[in-house]
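Supplementary Note 3. Input sequence used for the single-chain structure prediction.
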Amino acid sequence: MSVKTDYGVPRDQDELGALASILAQSFAAPAEDVLKRMEMFDEIPRVIRADGRVTGGIWLIPMAQWFGGRSVPMGGVAAVGVPPEGRGTGTALEMMVAGMAELREQGVPLSSLYPAAQTLYRKTGFEQAGGRYSLSLPGSALVMKERALTMRAATEDDRPAIKEVHRAYAAPLSGQLDRGDYCWHWVFNTRKEPTQGYVVEEDGRITGYVFLTRERTLGHGFYDVNLTDMVALNPAAGRRLLTFLADHRSMAESFNWFSGQGDPMLA
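The predicted structure, written as discrete structure tokens, is reproduced below.
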């Protein structure tokens, strides 16, 4: 007996709830948290149905990447989920193919994701094009004492200028994200709490910033410093940011962030 499948936006709150349940099973998160997260953004997830019942979901998030100094539209793929009892049936592949067809119809030339399983995405036309690196420095590793530039806590009013700093930093670097609201949300917040932000100023202009949380540890130090973003437009701003981090070293077990192999802060 053939099964009739179709792909599209959730029809009602019941289908959204069914999708939240599937994603909760896929990513080990409470369903209510998943539903709340989906409701935070304007982007609407997609579902695939089998005989009218939701059997999987995908989230296509409008994004862009910088190439040659130009912002190129890109479809970010997130929250690809199929319940455990439905895996191995081709549902995820069918859903991915439909999602890529939708992006193509919209004229979006690129798509990107973090793959949990490479086989599925290679079947859809993806190939590995980069990496996400976890960087960690022991608290004692930073010994910087450059405080000539002003460093202060960031405010809500600083956010437009902070976004412009990132844009100026990212535009010349091929592959960097031209961030939208979804990406900036995860700079300003973690899954547990808002981050704390700090900016570097030169002549009244922001030229660097860092957003972070401090997490208590069981080690010799008192906490880890976890960065959600750190950008400097020039070496002086970079050294001031590193000095700011170094000023945590008497209490910090480690400094942790995600970046690439060529992160200029490592120099």
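Helices lie at 13-27, 31-39, 91-105, 118-123, 159-170, 181-188, 235-246. The mean pLDDT is 92.
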